[in-house]
Automatic annotation (TrEMBL), chain A:
Residue sites binding FAD per the record: A46, E67, L75, V111, W396, G403, V404, I405
Protein name, as recorded: NADPH:adrenodoxin oxidoreductase, mitochondrial
Signal peptide (from-to): none
Family as reported in the entry's similarity comment: Belongs to the ferredoxin--NADP reductase type 1 family.
Single GO MF descriptor: oxidoreductase activity
Pfam family, one: Pyr_redox_2
Organism: Acanthochromis polyacanthus (spiny chromis)
Cofactor(s) needed for function: FAD
Domain of life per record: Eukaryota
Automatic annotation (TrEMBL), chain B:
MF terms (GO), sorted A to Z: 2 iron, 2 sulfur cluster binding; electron transfer activity; metal ion binding
Gene Ontology terms: cellular component: mitochondrial matrix
Keyword vocabulary terms for this entry: 2Fe-2S, Electron transport, Iron, Iron-sulfur, Metal-binding, Mitochondrion, Transport
Family under the similarity heading: Belongs to the adrenodoxin/putidaredoxin family.
Reported cofactor(s): [2Fe-2S] cluster
Biological-process GO terms, alphabetical: P450-containing electron transport chain
Coiled-coil spans in chain: none
Organism of this sequence: Acanthochromis polyacanthus (spiny chromis)
Matches recorded under InterPro entries: 2Fe-2S_ferredoxin-like_sf, 2Fe-2S_ferredoxin-type, Adrenodoxin-like, Adrenodoxin_Fe-S_BS, Beta-grasp_dom_sf
Protein name in the entry: Ferredoxin 1
Amino acid sequence: MSGHKLLKLWSSGRSRWRLHEGISRCGKACYSSCIPKVCIVGSGPAGFYTAQHIIKARQDVDVDIYERLPVPFGLVRFGVAPDHPEVKNVINTFTQTAKHSRCSFYGNVNVGKDVSVDELQQAYHAVVLSYGAEGNRSMGVPGEDLAGVYSAKDFVGWYNGLPNCRELSPDLSCETAVILGQGNVALDVARILLSPIDSLKKTDITQPALEALAESQVCRVLIVGRRGPMQIACTIKELREMVNLPGTRPEMVATDFEGVAEALKDVPRPRKRLTELMLKTALEKPGEKEQERRNKASRVWGFRFFRSPIEVLADPSQNKIAGIRLAVNKLEGSGEGVQAVLTGEEEDVPCGLVVSSIGYKSLSIDPSVPFDSHKAIVPNIMGRVQQAAGLYCSGWLKTGPTGVIATTMNNSFDTARSLMEDMDSGMLDLSAAKPGSQSISVLLEKRGVKPVTFSDWEKIDNVEMTRGEASGKPREKLLNVEEMLQVART
Amino acid sequence: MALVTALGRLAHVRLREYSRRTAAVSWGAFLTGRRNLSTGTQPLRSENKVTVHFINRDGEKITVKGSPGDSLLDIVINEDLDFDGFGACEGTLACSTCHLIFDEEVYKKLGPVTDEEMDMLDLAYGLTDTSRLGCQICLTKSLEGMVARVPESVADIRQSKDGSS
């Protein structure tokens, strides 16, 4: 340590500022006689960012994170695409939080089944529900249950090793795949379906998915949306990845873009750049080099606009899908309120694979927790669950299933701030000590449930990374809960 | 005798400073998930350093020094600056949490923005014409004394409430 560095820390006042912040946050409650105990349900980004903020804000709070699976990190592990490893760097900060002396991780505990939210509320001063959105919106059309139709949630779960998706075995022997929805998840699915197999080999994609994709015949992917180019929900990074995807060429319908260039004048920069890239890809004549690249490409992808699914068509002899019937829409209204309206026209698209990527959806896990089944969220104001003292929510369960990790991070910090305010103001009664994990552990033991600790997870982590090394992958994920538990117990 | 006492006092101070620094390093590492690897490798000569002023979300000015070649994210991490959620993806252009705002003059000196950076910057809350991602700005001597403002990362409904917490 250089003398220069030490002196600076002493005189900078920064550490004093942080200390001051800490005191102003915990106010008189700093001197409460008991340790405030907070329980968080769900160990994805919402759970961990909420925990991180609470632990940082008050020096006396203990935070316990409960997770249904033996492994933590939620959609960072099971949602983020295998070819986006940088996005998963947040796992490092979550790991730091989990290893903090005032944080404990309890995996393999199913809240709602192994223990109720009521029981958690009795054991903890506050409970934060951060269990995300494990369901998906359905298209609500006939034929949706045919073989060959999958929700994006399941398809993504399959290539990312979510235990209850391992039997999906999607049939990739068809040429054309249709994806409904044009958000980033839809683009992830398209990209994974069309990526050169060599670029997937070095990722943490599961081995069964890799093998299936190596045999895949899918060479044309249509990404279909109800509305027009200006309403597309994906972001530019993901679009650029498709445009630059080796071995593929874009194929769009020029008339879909009528009037779009003119409408761009007053549009904010992010939407403008995204639309300009789309216009360029769809309409501009490529340079010589790009034209050559496109001529050699064996795989095709494209957006189709103004189309909604009405029916999945079955192949009568094989009880699997033969195509999808789409309604043709037109747009009414303007600005944010633009709506798709039926024109009466229809169009049939032959295909062998349909992936519905129209949104994840939260589910109610405990009848005692208020749940808005229309919006599929827990009703709340700034993270405080309505009509439920001591109950909070963060992440997608709080706001609905949209947004990137940073969105969830801010959302979680917001809930943590509400919680801190309530502790400071006395809204949350901290006068009586609560048993926290002590009583919950007893309950779980009685019920034959053995939690997985964070160091148990690290054993699983090490096994996965070691297995991955053999094939040049960052990890080879364990694909079922039994195997995870087996390793955890070694 | 005086020398021994002086040395003893110095040793005492250094020991306290060491534990404070280690605590700060591990705290910073706890917040950002990164170990402070550069502590031991920073040049000791102060004329090689560039002063940077950060304005945090509370409006406070924090002055630090970095070495030419350090990114602004590197400095935030190395100096354990306590910005909530800053640098989530650890400088890999996979998020927009190291969003910083500059004044016109400084912005012009920062050089061209790549498409890759612009793509992620486009997702930042409160984007301005003089916004950049801190992980992509590397210090040079010409940026001596630069000011970088850390913007709000979300619309804070609380700002309209009476501050009674």
